[in-house]
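Q: Start with the shorter request: fold the first protein.
A: Done. Sequence, then structure:
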Amino acid sequence: MARVIGIDLGTTFSLVAAFQSDSVVVIREPGRGKLLPSVVCFQADGDPMVGETARRAAVVRPERTVFAVKALMGQRYSDIKDYAAGLPYHVVNHEGLAAVEIAGKIFTPEVVSALILGKLKAEAEAYFDEPVSDAVITVPAYFSDAQVTATQNAGVIAGFTGQTTNDQPIILREPMAAALSFGFGLQAEERDKTILVWDLGGGTFDVSIVRLRAGMFTSVATSGDTRLGGKDWDAQLTGIIIKRFMEESGHDIRSDPQALMRVMEAAENAKHTLSTHESASVTIPFITQAENRPLNLSMTISRAEFEESTRALLESMREPHERAMKDAHLEAGDMDEILLVGGASRMPMVPRLLEELTGRQPNQAVNPDEAVVAGAAILAGMQTGDVGELGYHDIIPLTIRVRVEDGKEARAEEVIRRGTQVPVEVKVPLTTTADGQTSAHIVVYQGDSPKPAGNEVIGAFYVNNLPAAPSGRVKIVLTLTVDRNGVMTASALEEKSGASYEVRLTGFSRMRPEEVRRAQAAITAVERSASAAAPDPKEEQARTEAQAAIKDAESLGISEPADHPVLGAIATVQAALENGGSERISASTANLRTLMEEYTAKAV
């Protein structure tokens, strides 16, 4: 049987794992940690860098480096344009959807995500020394149909079109994955629990309640916020740093993409430090210049200041929790286990709020970074028969509605309530609303509002060639099917004639099959080109650091004398970049840094 791997496709970091020899193995490329930065940098020649190398390149090539692309998946441009305005790379309106523009070329979020998935796929293939074309990919519990479909398309584009998973990747909700990971390690007699899962990742927040009974995991209720995550805390810290620097120096660095990227990176590092310390020092040398003199950024931020500035973000986590508990008809005391996962959950304020709401501390045995990918690997093992005695039932996170008109006004009528287990199929009776009507426009929504405008359109289609008849005489039966991945399909039947209509939901986010095929071909060509000219990782890192050093040196504004040591060192680094060799580049960069520090010390 074909091998199946598990992937946690995260906003900030991604992981890949497999079930092997009765346990989960997190796979990583030699020389890097288990967490792969979810970052893609498009070089001048068009070849992409993925992961840590791309993340380092973001400082010197911010306009070519895409991160947090998960936040753009399946999103209308109009819905995220305010968020996109704060990014150093260019997000554009592409046929109504958010996409990324690099040097005049458009990349959809699915393609960027496919490059990240392709990197993880290649690492798994190198680990097992065999092709891998089957995968379980995780998504937030509160992802909409549009976002799930976009993720599935990204998997297909990346080459996950194998036999075991029915020609497409399996989609698993992240809280369910965390519950699977926790429950797998329990003895049979312990598998009778109600589990509360909080998952605060880099870009999303989920709350789910899962029942475990005799090895079957059943999602009872779920809620969340697909636009709340660690990146929002990073943004608050970034704002604090920029504001304080502006107050101290009089300079606003928000218009400088490279300076902004350096501050964003420093803010993320400070957030990590504040998770374990009461204060964090932020130091960025040569952040900008004034009157031909370099300006350094240096400050200390306390945990108290950080927590106060992000209080509103923390408070926004209450509503999804309370909604999930209400939908499940349960109280905090009904929970047998509480799991807290996702890298951003390490901030002390998060478990403190969870304890306030539940009266209990979360289970400390769960690894917040690896719980989700471990669950994906366990489900992968279930597909191959390596894991037995376990099963799961997931639910629809958002209510499904259909547009209905009664001659007065249109309304979005509920047809599948949120919390319904999947897979599920419903038949919806519809009728014509005008005399002689021969075509019906059917719109399917996802959301909780009875008004069409208050919901997200999953898709729309026309049923044509209906028999002409008085209003209300022609009966149409709409069949909606939601598969185990949470993806919807539709069909329609005209009752009297028995004529059936093959329909395809054509929502904003749904790529047409030919678009997926074109994207697959483009990704294959790009990966083949990048593989043929793959740089040495050490040299690529040295090059990135050298370019950053040159940028910092140039910001000093030294133009004379011509034989100034710093200018000579810049020329030496540039020559090393032309001739290549990681050791030569690193040595010349170190020398340049030393001369810059000496110059700055004298200037001060």
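Q: Next, the second protein, separately.
A: Sequence, then structure:
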Amino acid sequence: MELLISLSSPPLHHITSSANSNRKQINRQNIKGRAWGTTRGGVAHRASHGGRVSPSCSTVVKKMDRSTGPAFVLVPLLLFWSRIKPKAHCRHYYYSASVLGKEPPYIAPPPPPAASTMITAAASRALRAPVARAARNGAAPLASSRTAVLSISASSALAGGTIDCSSAPRRHKSTCPHAASAAAAAAADAGCPVHADKAGGAPDDVSHPKLVEVPSLPGVGSLLRSYSGIPDLEKPYTFWPEMRRQHGDFYTMGMPGLGSEDCSRHTCYVVQDPREMMKVLRSEGSYPSGLAQGSWGIFRWEKEAGFETVSHADGGFAGQGENWKRIRTFMQTDLLHPTAARGYTSGLIEVAQLAARGAPASAADLNAYFERCAFDMFSTVMFGDLMEVADPSTPTDPEDVEFVRAAKVGLGTGVKVSRSLKDALLVKTLGIETEQYRLMKDNLDICWEIGSGKIQRFMDKREKDELNEREKNSYLYRALERYESGTSGVSLKEALEMSWGGIFAAVDTTSGKMGWNVLHAALNPEIQERLHQELSHAAAANGGRLTVEALDKSSAPYLHAFVRESHRLTPVSPIATRKCVASDELTIHGITIPRGSAVMCDGYSLGQDPMYIDDPRSFQPERWLDDAVQARKGTPRELIDHPFFKDPFSQGARKCPGSRVALNEVAVILSQLVLDYQITAPGTSSIEEVSYGQETVIEPRLPRLNFEPRA
């Protein structure tokens, strides 16, 4: 006897086995449709209207389970919105009894192990009636009903019949093109067991995994977990693999800030295959979209502060027009090209040698230490100056310390503002500043005051011809030279604003990646020793001191493999890239995707799948050495070597302009610390014991590390 459970969205009632005395008994009133209060038909009636109440039905919300928390207040309002903008659903999520042992967070609690392949008679009788009603009405048990539906073989009252979802009546035409795509994909199959993709497993057609639609609501998308059933988004290292396990390799979800702006549910298509994502990049043309465009809070502050870069009619640097392209071209010059980025490496090495001295004294607060390291390193790129903030034993300008603090708070809070539903409603829509928005604004004001002052002092020294050779090799010096040549296409104000933005953004983004890499070295002493031997050998020709050549991949392949493995296991951003469709005929996995749709590539989950990576939770840089990469060529596993998975800086024309410099910074500080110290993590034996937080990027809550000087 096979048990099939249709999984869907709001947990307004709980269905459990009566064999488990610790669980609630089945509430037959709720099973009959009264939890949501349809006055006629319960499950079947909801199913016939795409999983929600039809505007033509007389409906009363009779009862709501208080366990839904915020949903107790929000869901009735959102349902009203749904009645105005009905959305077609045709999505079944089936789990066989064989997977009930691993309970997804949003399905009913499973029966006890002894009953894993059967359901108790009480539960069977309670559920049989609504399923039969749905079958008689020709309707399917749809994803928005959150009701467990049983399909039992010939021995059951349903005589083994399955509900033909392709024949379900549709009373409302969808107004959402994203829902229409999902419905069209779902209706391609005749029966529910075929229609339903095996969550997290290989699709029936390996070239075209089926599109699954995660339940979403207007305004909040899928973020109302009691409705959508998604895992905890604040734990991204479990969220993304679990989403893939539940929904497969191709699904949609509502993601405010990341989803489509012209869709009330903020729909975003999520893919695993970077080759499919490449189609989206190729469709974008000269004016592509980018992940940073979702940072509306920071862009709003810049506009309020009078930034010229975001004050153009097409949005300027925050938009997708000619002004974005003009400003972006100026900014990435002398940063993104490999030769340009390499030109700053000697300065980074000098900074790292000074910063490394402060590691032992900073062991109690290593997160702050790496923020100061990131500031010191990018400051030498921007200004050619040695700030020496990282070493607490060195006299430091209090202004620099305050800049680091304010940049950390300002940028981190800006990211929170941009993904906050409260801030979106009050600040973005109504113009009412929230406490969180004011915190961001106050700290950005501090950063601008300090940063613009540094830029002005640099310009004054340049005008007096007082700059040294290191300062003349800086990004800002070259930017001013390009501006004065008259061929840059930007104003002086735009040039200075973009220079400030570079150092502001570098503090909080690069520091997280530094922290993860050094932590992996501390937790893996044998790997750390192999890295030390390689670096010592590469630096031997220079008396044991790092050089630009010693850090090249040809001289230190294990170093580059180490950084790549750190990104696989603990990326500071699990999203490889996010783009918008700019074509009317773009297809992903055989499905035509509407123009303007947001598409995102999950850059993390495949790297945690044993089908692609052996022992995926272990730290093994050897995976990325040339012989291992060559061995994967021509096999399904070569997908993991796609360029989209190599770093966290997005892809295409909107790739982070400072990405090459940032990677060099990480390699340099890691190398210097490993050369100078034997790094250990007393009291911490595994990466699984280390907590982390989603700030500007995902960063570890670093435990205390010991830095023992090497002989």
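Q: Describe the second briefly.
A: The CA atoms of residues 441 and 517 lie 31 Å apart. Residues 1-196 form one domain.
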